[in-house]
Design a protein that fits this description.
Layout (H helix, E strand, L loop, with lengths): L1 E6 L2 E3 L5 E9 L4 E9 L6 E6 L5 E3 L7 E6 L4 E6 L8 E13 L2 E8 L3 E5 L2
Parallel strand pairs: 2-11
Antiparallel strand pairs: 1-3, 3-8, 4-5, 4-9, 5-6, 7-8, 9-10, 9-11
Length: 123
């Protein structure tokens, strides 16, 4: 089991910045990829940024160049630095992790989610 606790959400004016944190605990050694998703009111939950176990980073086109995902292995924490925020970034942001378990019958993956943290961008 992996437990994810998010922090850093809040309200900010357009053009401002926020930094989200996600602290992981539990079966940390089994974690492969970690990511940030977001869900705006009335919208689906979409992938924002992904960091692979190799360190490679992927971003949604809407946030590329503005958001940065990073990981501090010593602190078991993943971050999302958000710059140049606009109203379209208003959403609940969720931390996500995937674990990999090797068994005789094959490799199995399990997804875990944080509780979500609200980000509101308004004048």
């Amino acid at each position: 089991q992996v437990y994810l606790v998010e922090s850093g959400g809040g309200s900010v004016q357009p053009g401002g910045s926020l930094k989200l944190s996600c602290a992981a605990s539990g079966s940390i050694s089994s974690i492969t990829n970690m990511a940030w998703y977001r869900q705006a009111p009335g919208k689906r939950r979409d992938l924002v940024a992904l960091i692979h176990s190799s360190g490679t980073r992927d971003y949604a086109a809407s946030v590329k160049g503005r958001f940065t995902i990073s990981r501090d292995n010593a602190k078991n924490t993943v971050y999302l630095q958000m710059n140049s925020l606009n109203s379209e970034d208003t959403a609940v942001y969720y931390c996500y992790s995937r674990t990999s378990t090797s068994m005789a019958t094959g490799t199995y993956f399990t997804d875990y989610w944080g509780q979500g943290t609200q980000v509101t961008v308004s004048p």
